[in-house]
Amino acid sequence: MAQALPPLQPLLDEITEVARASENRGKVADYIPELAGVDPDQFGIAIARPGQPTVMAGDAQVPFSIQSVSKVFMLALALGKLGDRLWSRVGREPSGHSFDSMLLLELEKGYPRNPFINAGAIVTTDAVLQGATPRETLGALLRFIRAAAGDEAIHINERVARSEIATGHRNFALAHYLLSHGNLKNPPELTLGTYFHQCAVEMTCAQLANAGLFLVGGAGAPRLVSQARIRRINALMMTCGHYDGSGDYAFRVGLPGKSGVGGGILSVVPGVAAIAVWSPGLNHYGNSKLGTEAMEQLAARTGWSVF
Ligand code: DON
């Protein structure tokens, strides 16, 4: 028998209290200098459901850097532009390696495993950028995110983007390696400039949960992509959205999810809800430590799972 849904506001308040009291908060990403100074004590969570008010707790109205969560939105744009032709340039298998790994890219001749590891996301951005300028591409991305969230205030933090342009040596290495295999169509600095800016989109948990509604589907959700595409993006989030921690997230939470090194996670309960959680400290996979724990609690208490 289906589990009865508990009242969500007290549940989010309780999850926030537990997270706030937690002593082991993980480690804030410091390889992007502008993110190193983010206060690790912040925690926010929000649930958006089609046609219902957003429920939220903690620092759910504080903007944070969505980083790799942006890869979900760019993937939706790339599929809209190329359809299944995208898969000739990037795969759809979990990598089992860290998000910025070079290892498989060399073994597999410049064909990245999936659109969520950095190499695959760089190819995805490169595909959307082809035939357009970085400004147009980022404009299209912001239009998509703002339409999904129903919020025109969402913007890109230029300082975060610049901070990564100055220090993103691994991403430059990946881009040049892709270029050497003919799998980058624009100059590396243009594709990476676009990619770093997309990662520097700032959103609150409330905005991100609402933006995730386009992946929930059903009556009242914004219809920005087809139902078939919703299924496929969710499948990729489930199998690849947490990098080499994707199996662990599926085991503990049981929902499609996409993480970012800013400490945000977007998870989807198909047909029911989109959830955003944010806590800047990361686990050893580079995914939010308390965010994952909070999602595990929320899934257990609501019974929300795709299994
Ligand atoms: O390219 C990078 O390294 C960052 N802009 C994004 C990486 C990221 O968010 C990985 N997620 N956990």
Short recap of the structure:
By secondary structure, this protein is an alpha+beta fold. The chain has 13 helices and 10 strands.
State the CATH superfamily name of the largest domain.
Answer: DD-peptidase/beta-lactamase superfamily
Q: What percent of residues are in strands?
A: 5-15%
- The topology string of helices and strands comes to HEHEEEHHHHEHHHEHHHEEEEH
Query: Cofactors and ligands present?
Result: 6-diazenyl-5-OXO-L-norleucine
Termini distance?
14 Å
Question: Average pLDDT value?
Answer: 97
Structurally, the number of domains stands at 2
Low-confidence stretches: none
CATH topology of the largest domain: Beta-lactamase
Q: If helices are DSSP runs of H or I spanning 4 or more residues, what is the number of helices?
A: 13
InterPro entries: Beta-lactam/transpept-like, Glutaminase
Enzyme class: hydrolase
Pfam families: Glutaminase
Subunit structure: Homotetramer.
Would you give an account of this structure?
This protein is of the alpha+beta class and 307 residues long. The chain folds into two domains: 8-67 and 201-302, Beta-lactamase (3-Layer(aba) Sandwich), CATH 3.40.710; 70-199, DD-peptidase/beta-lactamase superfamily (Beta-lactamase). The chain is 46% helix and 11% strand. It is built from 13 helices and ten strands. A hairpin with a 3-residue loop joins β8 and β9. Bound molecules: 6-diazenyl-5-OXO-L-norleucine. Residues 67-68, 99-100, 118, 164, 171, 199, 259-261, 286-287 line the site of 6-diazenyl-5-OXO-L-norleucine (DON). 6-diazenyl-5-OXO-L-norleucine binds next to loops.
